[in-house]
Amino acid sequence: MSHQRDTAIHLVAGGVAGTAGAVVTCPLEVVKTRLQSSQGLGIPPPPPPPSDSTANARKVCSKVHRHQEAKWGYRRTMGAMFAYSKQADRMLMHIVQNEGPKALFKGLGPNIVGVAPSRAIYFCTYSQAKAILNQNIAPDTPIVHLSAASAAEHLHVTCLNVRTLLQDSRISELCYAIKDLNWDIIGLSETRRATETIEEYEDFILYHSKGSNERNGVGFLIRKSWKRYIVSLNSFSDRVAVLEIKIYQNTLWTIIQIYAPTESYKAEDLDLFYQAVEEALDSTNTKNLILMGDFNAQIGKMRDGEERIFGKYSTGKRSKNRQKLIRLLSRKKPHYYQ
């Protein structure tokens, strides 16, 4: 009973804390959004006075590759804070004077709807995990709190068609494009690299399959913090790559990244692709499976008998390539995620 009471307290406290945080920071979010949008362009900051040192600094910065920006992250962040603090103050005063104080809390409702349940679930999961760990190892030790907090977090997985990573500069551009995203694993399509390679960078690991005549190619971008949990990385073709990784409580997950041929390709190319996907699926030894990527097929609206493989929100017409995808998703092997 005491444990259930503690869990309920954490659930409520997490929701209240998330709500309070959303309310307090809402004006800052409004100012930030305005500064990032076209509305913020109405009151630009005054231009800095020209100087030789400024010109030299610009020349030096222009020579730095974007993926190296993390090395100066602290200095760049602090510099941005001082450089734009006056602009933020001006925007804050502009909103209050022209729209009233209530305008600083625009969008608060939807924000609370998202933040409050998220924080409540986090703290509830933390409480439950801590109770379980206290029964198996020394109670209330730092390792218990650390493990419980880790269990409450999520593994963020997504996929992206990068068009090409053929030149090294494209990798720098990719790093710059995702620097503000919350991700742990990104499946990549159309990498177009010449060889199958695992490359280790400062903050992440890049794996890519071998492309075909500077076309196709798939791979993964994996946060460095997950390096020791990687079991294997391999490809079944230049369109199918597989990552096996152990996550919470040593549970094995298989993530398959694909890049399907478009409808302009011949039927035999599509057959070879789905054959490689089938081989990748047959190679898995776990029901924890994520199948993702660029399918290049429009499945359209759900029909009778397809309830097990379709979501209720599917809509539109079916493309020419849809039948093989539907047949793949109809396999008896369980737990497919798209």
From TrEMBL:
Q: Which PROSITE patterns does this one have?
A: SOLCAR
Sorted alphabetically, the Gene Ontology cellular component annotations on this record are:
mitochondrial inner membrane
What Pfam families has UniProt attached to this entry?
A: Exo_endo_phos, Mito_carr
Gene Ontology BP terms: pyrimidine nucleotide import into mitochondrion
Task: Classify the protein's membrane topology as the record does.
Answer: Multi-pass membrane protein
What does UniProt give as the signal peptide span? Answer: none
SUPFAM superfamilies the UniProt entry points to: DNase I-like (SSF56219), Mitochondrial carrier (SSF103506)
Its keywords, alphabetically, are: Endonuclease, Hydrolase, Membrane, Mitochondrion, Mitochondrion inner membrane, Nuclease, Nucleotidyltransferase, Repeat, RNA-directed DNA polymerase, Transferase, Transmembrane, Transmembrane helix, Transport
Q: Where in the cell is it found?
A: Mitochondrion inner membrane
Query: Per the record, which residues fall in region Disordered?
Result: 37-56
InterPro entries assigned to the protein according to its UniProt record, in alphabetical order: Endo/exonu/phosph_ase_sf, Endo/exonuclease/phosphatase, MCP_dom_sf, MCP_transmembrane, SLC25A33/36-like
Tree of life domain: Eukaryota
Q: Which residue ranges does the record assign to the Endonuclease/exonuclease/phosphatase domain?
A: 170-297
**Residue windows of the Solcar repeats:** 5-132
Molecular function terms in GO for this entry? endonuclease activity; pyrimidine nucleotide transmembrane transporter activity; RNA-directed DNA polymerase activity
Main localisation: mitochondrion
As for family, the record states: Belongs to the mitochondrial carrier (TC 2.A.29) family.
Identify this protein by name.
Endonuclease-reverse transcriptase
